[in-house]
From TrEMBL:
Signal peptide: none annotated. It comes from Methylobacterium soli. This is CDP-diacylglycerol pyrophosphatase. Residues 1-40, 61-82 are annotated as: Disordered. GO terms for cellular component: plasma membrane. Its main location: membrane.
Protein backbone atom coordinates (compact mmCIF):
# COMPACT_ATOMS: atom_id res chain seq x y z
CA UNK A 1 0.00 0.00 0.00
CA UNK A 2 1.56 3.33 -0.98
CA UNK A 3 2.79 5.55 1.84
CA UNK A 4 2.72 9.33 1.70
CA UNK A 5 5.95 11.26 1.94
CA UNK A 6 6.15 13.75 4.80
CA UNK A 7 8.64 15.70 6.82
CA UNK A 8 10.90 13.66 9.10
CA UNK A 9 9.84 13.04 12.66
CA UNK A 10 10.47 10.08 14.91
CA UNK A 11 8.52 7.14 13.46
CA UNK A 12 5.05 6.65 14.81
CA UNK A 13 2.68 3.80 14.16
CA UNK A 14 0.84 4.61 10.95
CA UNK A 15 -2.07 3.31 9.01
CA UNK A 16 -1.56 4.49 5.45
CA UNK A 17 -4.91 4.97 3.83
CA UNK A 18 -4.28 6.83 0.62
CA UNK A 19 -1.29 7.97 -1.46
CA UNK A 20 -1.75 11.52 -0.22
CA UNK A 21 -2.50 13.22 3.09
CA UNK A 22 -4.36 16.40 3.76
CA UNK A 23 -2.07 19.33 4.67
CA UNK A 24 -1.86 19.77 7.89
CA UNK A 25 -4.63 16.33 22.81
CA UNK A 26 -6.15 13.79 23.10
CA UNK A 27 -5.62 14.07 26.66
CA UNK A 28 -6.74 15.53 29.79
CA UNK A 29 -4.05 17.57 31.51
CA UNK A 30 -1.74 15.44 33.64
CA UNK A 31 -2.96 17.35 36.69
CA UNK A 32 -6.66 16.88 35.85
CA UNK A 33 -7.17 13.47 34.30
CA UNK A 34 -9.46 11.39 36.53
CA UNK A 35 -9.91 7.74 35.72
CA UNK A 36 -12.94 6.86 33.64
CA UNK A 37 -15.94 6.32 35.89
CA UNK A 38 -16.96 2.66 36.37
CA UNK A 39 -19.64 1.68 33.93
CA UNK A 40 -19.11 4.72 31.68
CA UNK A 41 -19.77 4.04 27.98
CA UNK A 42 -16.71 3.03 26.01
CA UNK A 43 -16.53 4.34 22.46
CA UNK A 44 -12.81 3.85 21.82
CA UNK A 45 -10.38 0.93 22.09
CA UNK A 46 -9.20 0.03 25.57
CA UNK A 47 -5.71 1.20 24.65
CA UNK A 48 -6.97 4.72 25.47
CA UNK A 49 -6.31 3.80 29.09
CA UNK A 50 -2.66 4.44 28.21
CA UNK A 51 -3.04 8.04 27.08
CA UNK A 52 -2.16 9.68 30.40
CA UNK A 53 1.30 11.16 30.79
CA UNK A 54 1.52 9.51 34.20
CA UNK A 55 0.82 6.11 32.63
CA UNK A 56 3.30 6.29 29.77
CA UNK A 57 5.82 3.97 31.42
CA UNK A 58 3.21 1.40 32.32
CA UNK A 59 1.75 1.34 28.81
CA UNK A 60 4.84 2.06 26.75
CA UNK A 61 5.61 -1.57 26.09
CA UNK A 62 2.20 -2.68 24.95
CA UNK A 63 1.09 -3.09 21.39
CA UNK A 64 -1.36 -0.58 20.01
CA UNK A 65 -4.78 -1.36 18.71
CA UNK A 66 -7.13 -4.31 19.09
CA UNK A 67 -5.46 -7.51 20.13
CA UNK A 68 -3.21 -5.75 22.62
CA UNK A 69 -4.54 -7.69 25.57
CA UNK A 70 -7.42 -5.41 26.55
CA UNK A 71 -10.96 -6.71 26.93
CA UNK A 72 -13.03 -7.08 23.80
CA UNK A 73 -15.57 -4.33 23.23
CA UNK A 74 -18.91 -4.63 21.51
CA UNK A 75 -19.97 -1.96 19.02
CA UNK A 76 -22.39 0.69 20.28
CA UNK A 77 -26.00 -0.31 20.76
CA UNK A 78 -27.90 -0.27 17.51
CA UNK A 79 -25.06 -1.63 15.39
CA UNK A 80 -25.89 -5.25 14.78
CA UNK A 81 -25.65 -7.90 12.09
CA UNK A 82 -23.95 -6.61 8.98
CA UNK A 83 -22.86 -3.41 10.74
CA UNK A 84 -21.19 -5.43 13.49
CA UNK A 85 -19.31 -7.50 10.91
CA UNK A 86 -18.16 -4.38 9.09
CA UNK A 87 -16.86 -2.83 12.30
CA UNK A 88 -15.02 -6.02 13.22
CA UNK A 89 -13.45 -6.10 9.77
CA UNK A 90 -12.38 -2.47 10.10
CA UNK A 91 -10.95 -3.10 13.56
CA UNK A 92 -9.03 -6.14 12.35
CA UNK A 93 -7.64 -4.29 9.35
CA UNK A 94 -6.60 -1.38 11.54
CA UNK A 95 -4.81 -3.70 13.97
CA UNK A 96 -2.97 -5.47 11.15
CA UNK A 97 -1.81 -2.25 9.49
CA UNK A 98 -0.78 -0.62 12.76
CA UNK A 99 1.12 -3.73 13.83
CA UNK A 100 2.91 -3.95 10.48
CA UNK A 101 3.96 -0.31 10.64
CA UNK A 102 5.11 -0.73 14.24
CA UNK A 103 7.20 -3.83 13.58
CA UNK A 104 8.77 -2.26 10.49
CA UNK A 105 10.14 0.72 12.44
CA UNK A 106 13.78 0.49 13.65
CA UNK A 107 13.89 -0.54 17.29
CA UNK A 108 16.28 2.26 18.18
CA UNK A 109 13.85 4.87 16.84
CA UNK A 110 10.57 3.67 18.35
CA UNK A 111 8.60 6.56 19.89
CA UNK A 112 6.55 6.35 23.04
CA UNK A 113 3.48 4.50 21.73
CA UNK A 114 1.17 6.12 24.27
CA UNK A 115 1.60 9.47 22.46
CA UNK A 116 0.15 8.04 19.25
CA UNK A 117 -3.08 6.50 20.50
CA UNK A 118 -5.17 9.36 19.13
CA UNK A 119 -3.52 9.01 15.73
CA UNK A 120 -4.28 5.28 15.66
CA UNK A 121 -7.92 5.87 16.60
CA UNK A 122 -8.15 8.49 13.86
CA UNK A 123 -6.96 5.97 11.27
CA UNK A 124 -9.79 3.66 12.30
CA UNK A 125 -12.25 6.50 11.71
CA UNK A 126 -10.82 7.18 8.26
CA UNK A 127 -10.89 3.52 7.24
CA UNK A 128 -14.49 3.24 8.44
CA UNK A 129 -15.54 6.37 6.59
CA UNK A 130 -13.96 5.28 3.32
CA UNK A 131 -15.13 1.67 3.43
CA UNK A 132 -18.57 1.82 5.06
CA UNK A 133 -19.55 5.49 5.11
CA UNK A 134 -19.62 5.42 8.92
CA UNK A 135 -17.22 7.48 11.03
CA UNK A 136 -17.02 5.13 14.07
CA UNK A 137 -15.31 5.51 16.51
CA UNK A 138 -15.44 9.21 15.58
CA UNK A 139 -18.66 11.19 15.70
CA UNK A 140 -18.01 12.57 12.25
CA UNK A 141 -15.33 12.65 9.58
CA UNK A 142 -15.00 15.25 6.82
CA UNK A 143 -12.48 13.92 4.32
CA UNK A 144 -11.97 17.39 2.82
CA UNK A 145 -10.96 18.05 -0.76
CA UNK A 146 -8.19 19.63 -2.79
CA UNK A 147 -8.87 23.09 -1.35
CA UNK A 148 -9.94 22.15 2.17
CA UNK A 149 -8.18 19.86 4.67
CA UNK A 150 -10.14 17.08 6.32
CA UNK A 151 -11.25 17.08 9.94
CA UNK A 152 -12.67 14.58 12.41
CA UNK A 153 -14.60 14.90 15.67
CA UNK A 154 -14.06 12.39 18.46
CA UNK A 155 -15.66 12.10 21.90
CA UNK A 156 -13.50 11.37 24.95
CA UNK A 157 -14.27 7.98 26.54
CA UNK A 158 -16.90 8.31 29.25
CA UNK A 159 -17.16 12.09 28.81
CA UNK A 160 -20.28 13.01 26.83
CA UNK A 161 -19.49 16.74 26.60
CA UNK A 162 -15.73 16.49 25.99
CA UNK A 163 -15.02 16.52 22.26
CA UNK A 164 -11.87 16.98 20.23
CA UNK A 165 -11.65 18.32 16.68
CA UNK A 166 -8.55 17.25 14.77
CA UNK A 167 -7.05 17.23 11.28
CA UNK A 168 -7.22 14.01 9.31
CA UNK A 169 -3.67 14.75 8.17
CA UNK A 170 -0.45 14.57 10.15
CA UNK A 171 -0.21 17.73 12.31
CA UNK A 172 1.63 17.24 15.64
CA UNK A 173 0.43 20.32 17.52
CA UNK A 174 -0.22 24.06 17.41
CA UNK A 175 3.47 24.65 16.73
CA UNK A 176 3.19 23.02 13.27
CA UNK A 177 4.23 25.50 10.52
CA UNK A 178 1.32 24.55 8.25
CA UNK A 179 -1.10 26.04 10.77
CA UNK A 180 0.20 29.50 9.91
CA UNK A 181 -1.40 29.03 6.49
CA UNK A 182 -5.08 28.59 5.46
CA UNK A 183 -5.24 25.11 7.00
CA UNK A 184 -5.17 26.74 10.45
CA UNK A 185 -8.29 28.71 9.63
CA UNK A 186 -10.03 25.55 8.38
CA UNK A 187 -9.44 23.74 11.68
CA UNK A 188 -10.60 26.80 13.62
CA UNK A 189 -13.86 26.94 11.65
CA UNK A 190 -14.39 23.20 12.13
CA UNK A 191 -14.05 23.65 15.91
CA UNK A 192 -16.50 26.56 15.94
CA UNK A 193 -19.01 24.50 13.98
CA UNK A 194 -18.67 21.58 16.43
CA UNK A 195 -19.65 23.58 19.54
CA UNK A 196 -23.39 22.85 19.27
CA UNK A 197 -22.59 19.15 19.76
CA UNK A 198 -21.66 19.97 23.35
CA UNK A 199 -24.97 21.70 23.99
CA UNK A 200 -26.86 18.81 22.38
CA UNK A 201 -25.11 16.39 24.76
CA UNK A 202 -26.49 18.53 27.61
CA UNK A 203 -30.02 18.62 26.17
CA UNK A 204 -29.70 22.35 25.58
CA UNK A 205 -28.98 23.20 29.23
CA UNK A 206 -25.86 25.16 28.24
CA UNK A 207 -25.80 27.98 25.66
CA UNK A 208 -23.29 27.49 22.87
CA UNK A 209 -21.64 30.74 23.99
CA UNK A 210 -20.51 28.96 27.17
CA UNK A 211 -18.66 26.23 25.28
CA UNK A 212 -14.92 26.83 25.38
CA UNK A 213 -12.09 25.58 23.19
CA UNK A 214 -8.49 24.83 24.11
CA UNK A 215 -5.24 23.47 22.70
CA UNK A 216 -2.55 22.31 25.12
CA UNK A 217 1.13 23.19 24.88
CA UNK A 218 3.58 20.52 23.75
CA UNK A 219 4.56 19.84 27.35
CA UNK A 220 0.96 19.85 28.52
CA UNK A 221 -0.38 17.32 26.03
CA UNK A 222 -0.07 13.56 25.91
CA UNK A 223 -0.80 13.10 22.18
CA UNK A 224 1.23 14.27 19.21
CA UNK A 225 -1.70 14.88 16.89
CA UNK A 226 -3.25 18.35 16.93
CA UNK A 227 -6.62 18.31 18.65
CA UNK A 228 -8.83 21.17 19.78
CA UNK A 229 -10.68 20.41 23.01
CA UNK A 230 -14.31 21.50 23.32
CA UNK A 231 -16.26 21.49 26.58
CA UNK A 232 -17.91 23.70 29.18
CA UNK A 233 -15.89 26.60 30.55
CA UNK A 234 -14.80 26.68 34.17
CA UNK A 235 -17.15 28.86 36.23
CA UNK A 236 -14.23 31.00 37.43
CA UNK A 237 -13.20 31.67 33.84
CA UNK A 238 -16.73 32.68 32.85
CA UNK A 239 -16.89 35.05 35.81
CA UNK A 240 -13.51 36.61 34.97
CA UNK A 241 -14.59 37.17 31.37
CA UNK A 242 -17.87 38.70 32.53
CA UNK A 243 -15.96 41.18 34.69
CA UNK A 244 -12.99 42.00 32.46
CA UNK A 245 -13.78 41.23 28.80
CA UNK A 246 -14.51 44.91 28.14
CA UNK A 247 -10.81 45.64 28.64
CA UNK A 248 -9.72 43.17 25.95
CA UNK A 249 -8.90 44.81 22.60
CA UNK A 250 -8.04 43.58 19.11
CA UNK A 251 -4.32 43.33 19.97
CA UNK A 252 -2.47 41.05 22.37
CA UNK A 253 -2.26 42.41 25.92
CA UNK A 254 -2.17 40.87 29.41
CA UNK A 255 -5.55 39.71 30.68
CA UNK A 256 -6.29 41.72 33.85
CA UNK A 257 -6.52 38.75 36.25
CA UNK A 258 -5.07 35.22 36.41
CA UNK A 259 -7.15 32.33 35.09
CA UNK A 260 -6.78 29.04 36.95
CA UNK A 261 -3.71 30.51 38.62
CA UNK A 262 -1.97 31.43 35.35
CA UNK A 263 -1.38 34.70 33.55
CA UNK A 264 -2.68 34.95 30.00
CA UNK A 265 -2.37 37.30 27.08
CA UNK A 266 -5.70 38.10 25.47
CA UNK A 267 -7.09 39.56 22.26
CA UNK A 268 -10.58 40.09 20.87
CA UNK A 269 -11.96 38.83 17.57
CA UNK A 270 -15.24 40.40 16.49
CA UNK A 271 -17.99 38.09 15.29
CA UNK A 272 -17.86 39.58 11.79
CA UNK A 273 -14.15 38.72 11.55
CA UNK A 274 -14.28 35.25 13.10
CA UNK A 275 -14.86 33.33 9.86
CA UNK A 276 -11.56 34.52 8.37
CA UNK A 277 -9.55 34.41 11.61
CA UNK A 278 -6.63 32.03 12.17
CA UNK A 279 -5.79 31.70 15.89
CA UNK A 280 -2.60 29.75 15.19
CA UNK A 281 -1.26 32.54 12.99
CA UNK A 282 -2.20 35.05 15.69
CA UNK A 283 -0.02 33.16 18.19
CA UNK A 284 3.02 33.87 16.02
CA UNK A 285 2.54 37.58 16.81
CA UNK A 286 2.53 37.37 20.60
CA UNK A 287 4.38 40.39 22.02
CA UNK A 288 7.90 40.20 23.39
CA UNK A 289 10.77 38.04 22.28
CA UNK A 290 10.39 35.35 19.65
CA UNK A 291 7.96 32.78 20.95
CA UNK A 292 8.51 29.04 20.77
CA UNK A 293 4.98 27.91 19.99
CA UNK A 294 5.67 24.52 21.55
CA UNK A 295 5.52 26.32 24.91
CA UNK A 296 2.21 28.08 24.16
CA UNK A 297 -1.25 26.98 25.29
CA UNK A 298 -4.35 28.37 23.61
CA UNK A 299 -7.92 28.85 24.83
CA UNK A 300 -10.98 30.48 23.28
CA UNK A 301 -14.21 31.72 24.84
CA UNK A 302 -17.17 33.68 23.53
CA UNK A 303 -17.59 37.22 24.75
CA UNK A 304 -20.20 37.65 27.51
CA UNK A 305 -23.80 38.06 26.41
CA UNK A 306 -23.94 41.73 27.35
CA UNK A 307 -20.70 42.61 25.51
CA UNK A 308 -21.15 45.57 23.12
CA UNK A 309 -18.82 43.91 20.59
CA UNK A 310 -19.82 40.23 20.37
CA UNK A 311 -17.22 37.77 19.24
CA UNK A 312 -14.46 35.75 20.87
CA UNK A 313 -11.73 36.23 23.45
CA UNK A 314 -8.50 34.48 22.43
CA UNK A 315 -6.24 33.55 25.37
CA UNK A 316 -2.60 32.49 25.17
CA UNK A 317 -0.28 31.30 27.93
CA UNK A 318 3.46 31.10 27.37
CA UNK A 319 4.48 28.39 29.81
CA UNK A 320 8.04 28.16 31.04
CA UNK A 321 7.42 24.52 31.84
CA UNK A 322 4.24 22.93 30.56
CA UNK A 323 0.66 24.04 30.70
CA UNK A 324 -2.61 22.66 29.45
CA UNK A 325 -5.02 25.29 28.15
CA UNK A 326 -7.60 22.58 28.69
CA UNK A 327 -7.52 23.44 32.42
CA UNK A 328 -9.79 26.38 31.60
CA UNK A 329 -12.46 23.84 30.63
CA UNK A 330 -14.78 22.05 33.04
CA UNK A 331 -15.21 18.43 31.94
CA UNK A 332 -17.78 17.94 34.72
CA UNK A 333 -19.89 20.78 33.25
CA UNK A 334 -20.97 22.05 36.64
CA UNK A 335 -22.68 25.06 35.02
CA UNK A 336 -25.03 22.77 33.13
CA UNK A 337 -25.64 20.68 36.25
CA UNK A 338 -26.61 23.80 38.20
CA UNK A 339 -28.90 24.89 35.36
CA UNK A 340 -30.63 21.50 35.51
CA UNK A 341 -31.24 21.91 39.26
CA UNK A 342 -32.72 25.37 38.74
Amino acid sequence: MPRASRRWRAPRPRVSISPSRSPGTWNRPASARPDRAPGAPTVLPSVFACTGLSRARACGGSRLGPGSGGPARDPPAGIRGEGRSELRAITGLSAFLVGAAWLAAPACALPDPSRNVLWVALQGCLIAKRTTGRAFPCLSVDLGDRDRPGTAILRAPGAPTHLVVMPTGDVPGLEAPELQRPAGNAYWRAALAARPRVTVALNGRLPVEEVGMAVNSAGGRSQDQLHIHLDCLQASVRLALQNHAARVTSGWAPFPVPLQGRRFLAMRVRAAEAEAFNPFAALAHLPGHATDLRAVALAVASTPRNDPEPGFIILANRAHGSFAGELLLDHACMAAAQAAVR
